[in-house]
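pls design
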């Protein structure tokens, strides 16, 4: 820097020049290597040189601050949008940081920041897991339930020169637990359902082998029972496999134009010669939907078969098709049968659930579960409306 043609460094006390050069050297060390070479030799005047170095340091630090803020914002955005809860606790297990998922899943609030974790969430096993990880430095996994939901917590030690604590990621595994329970129940139910026909087949075949074959009448009756039980077993296996296919993501729905009247009439015609001599009818309609014909046929066949099964001789079964601009096409199968109680209606679509209150126990108990899954795969919904002693109506919708 010069004033009236005189270098400002010339008027500096001679003892300050080394000090200024030291500042230049130390500040230059903050710059990138290529910047150091340029700015430390940009001019002879040491004060002007100091000014250039200070300017470049400020510019570079501003850029670094902006980059830090950008990365910080990105990290906060990622953490805040995660469905898993994330918390950071210090060495005394005080809550230092938490993302929105934590507050939502555990019904906490930011006022708990800085307080011991147990003050906001009373989960002793989680606290013990944090203590163990803090003490040993080893990662830890804890399973626990809280507020009616199931969680898996993964605890990791955080140790830096400026911080000592733990990072915990908590995942809501409620749906996984429910699915596991459904699978266990399904396996138990299948085993139970298979046990009855297998026991009958084994028992009667053993009796035949022990001498009943010598009595033609008895042998014939036993063979009929074995045949009937094997048919039930086959039906059960078929329905289990069908349900597995329907629930599989690999199931392909072939959406093509489907004339509903043709499918309805075809399914009804299969029952017109039924021994119960029921009256079958449908309203007049001309509706075409873009859907899977085979799936619709299976749904209708199952609903009409149930209507026939639970309707006394001389009763009637009616299939009604309606078009709603808002809800699409709805198909209702109504009967004048024994009806379904309110308690049973809430569980009618569960696997292996059979309606109580009467002696009819035919079927595998999987039919309506298959129907429900098929309707949902077609993009529709299904419901039931029934009065005990008067009949039932099953209505499913299809997008048009």
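designed seq:
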């Amino acid at each position: 820097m010069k004033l009236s043609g005189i270098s400002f460094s010339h008027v500096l006390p001679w003892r300050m020049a080394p000090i200024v050069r030291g500042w230049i050297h130390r500040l230059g060390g903050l710059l990138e290597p290529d910047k150091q070479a340029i700015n430390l030799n940009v001019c002879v005047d040491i004060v002007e040189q100091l000014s250039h170095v200070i300017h470049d340091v400020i510019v570079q630090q501003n850029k670094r601050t902006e980059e830090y803020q950008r990365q910080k914002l990105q990290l906060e955005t990622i953490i805040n949008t995660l469905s898993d809860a994330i918390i950071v606790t210090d060495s005394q297990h005080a809550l230092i940081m938490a993302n929105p998922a934590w507050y939502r899943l555990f019904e906490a609030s930011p006022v708990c920041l800085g307080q011991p974790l147990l003050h906001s969430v009373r989960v002793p096993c989680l606290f013990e897991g944090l203590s163990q990880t803090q003490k040993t430095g080893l990662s830890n996994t804890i399973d626990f339930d809280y507020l009616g939901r199931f969680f898996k917590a993964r605890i990791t030690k955080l140790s830096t020169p400026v911080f000592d604590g733990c990072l915990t990621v908590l995942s809501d595994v409620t749906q996984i637990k429910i699915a596991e329970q459904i699978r266990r129940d399904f396996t138990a139910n299948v085993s139970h359902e298979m046990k009855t026909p297998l026991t009958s087949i084994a028992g009667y075949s053993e009796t035949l082998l022990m001498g009943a074959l010598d009595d033609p009448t008895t042998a014939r009756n036993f063979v009929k029972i074995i045949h009937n039980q094997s048919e039930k077993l086959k039906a059960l296996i078929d329905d289990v496999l069908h349900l597995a296919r329907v629930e599989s993501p690999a199931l392909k729905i072939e959406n093509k134009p489907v004339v509903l009247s043709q499918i309805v009439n075809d399914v009804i015609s299969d029952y017109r010669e039924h021994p119960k001599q029921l009256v079958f009818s449908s309203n007049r309609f001309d509706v075409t939907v873009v859907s899977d014909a085979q799936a619709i046929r299976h749904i209708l066949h199952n609903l009409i078969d149930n209507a026939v099964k639970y309707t006394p001789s001389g009763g009637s079964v009616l299939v009604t098709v309606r078009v709603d601009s808002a809800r699409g096409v709805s198909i209702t199968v109504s009967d004048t049968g024994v009806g379904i109680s309110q308690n049973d209606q809430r569980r009618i679509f569960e696997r292996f659930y059979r309606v109580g209150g009467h002696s009819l126990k035919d079927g595998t108990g999987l039919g309506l579960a298959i129907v429900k899954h098929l309707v949902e795969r077609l993009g529709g919904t299904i419901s039931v409306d029934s009065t005990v002693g008067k009949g039932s109506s099953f209505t499913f919708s299809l997008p048009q």
